[in-house]
Amino acid sequence: MAHMPPELQRLRADHAPAVLAFELANRAYFAASISDRGDDYFDQFTERYDALLAEQEAGICAFYLLVAEDGSVLGRFNLFDIVEGQTADLGYRVAQHVAGHGVATATVEELCRLAATQHGLRTLRAATSHQNIASQKVLAKAGFTPVGPALPTDLGGKQGTWYQRDLGAAVLTPAEQEAAPQATDIACARTDP
């Protein structure tokens, strides 16, 4: 039987058990680089999860999961504070066992395409702490550039940097440039921003 690649799926109610398992299994790993969600998050998981679904239904946010063939969650990739036709903030986290294998970069690039094509956005922003080198590398590889300081209120008490990617311009990431070095007229060579 052929191995199916992970699939980026919109968050649904039936994903709740897999999302909780993902958060619990990776809690210590996440806490090493980003602020811990705290016990209240887990104690009130059902209510919080239902609130996320309501925000998504209202168009305020769009939540995605990278789902493995067995139904387990490999990562969460979210668009927050969507301003229709303009911008959103990007947040993401991947499971420890897939970190460092290009999963986050590839999925952030896919979400950038979806942000433009499915959500009509022109710009994405993401903040990362100074200590989170892996996230900085993901953002750079996915075509984001540093645009200014992120305050501790933006990053759960940590100092950091805001990054931004223009989705409207035909900007290729370094990985995309390497894959298509023959593209001289980028605007014509690329149909999905």
User: According to CATH, what is the class?
Assistant: Alpha Beta
E-strand count: 7
Q: How many discrete domains?
A: 1
In terms of DSSP E residues, the strand content is 25-35%
Determine Rg (CA atoms, Å): 17 Å
Strand arrangement across the biggest beta sheet? 1-2-3-4-5-7-6
| CATH superfamily annotation | Gcn5-related N-acetyltransferase (GNAT)
Largest β-sheet summary = 7 strands, mixed
Specify the number of helices: 8
Q: SSE order, as H and E?
A: EHHHHEEEHEHEEHH
The structural class is: alpha+beta
| CATH fold descriptor | Aminopeptidase
| Average pLDDT rating | 87
Can you tell me the overall shape?
Answer: globular
Q: Quickly give the CATH architecture.
A: 3-Layer(aba) Sandwich
Cα(first) to Cα(last) distance is: 34 Å
pLDDT < 50 stretches: 179-193
Q: What is the percent of helical residues?
A: 25-40%
Walkthrough of the structure:
By secondary structure, the protein is of the alpha+beta class. It has one domain: Aminopeptidase. It is 35% helix and 25% strand. It has a seven-stranded mixed β-sheet with strand order 1-2-3-4-5-7-6, with helices on both faces. The radius of gyration is 17 Å and the shape is globular. It starts with 6 loop residues before the first strand and ends with a helix. The model is unreliable at 179-193 (pLDDT under 50).
